[in-house]
Amino acid sequence: MASHLHSIDENLCAICGQPNHCAMVLERETGEKQAPCWCTQIKFSEDLLAKVPADKRLKVCVCASCAKLHA
Question: Where are the domains of the chain?
Fold first, then answer.
């Protein structure tokens, strides 16, 4: 029996699990050019980055709500 690996959904916030609305993911999925993502315009705090689970670091964006909450 093959084991089922836990898949990571890049569309969901790495912290709260709600949609993260990352334009870079949308562009990869659709192939359609997007405007720069909101996440490229802000600095994420060390406190916020520490809340991202290890398996999602550098793989999944956080949502704007979590970014603001932990700014």
Answer: 23-69
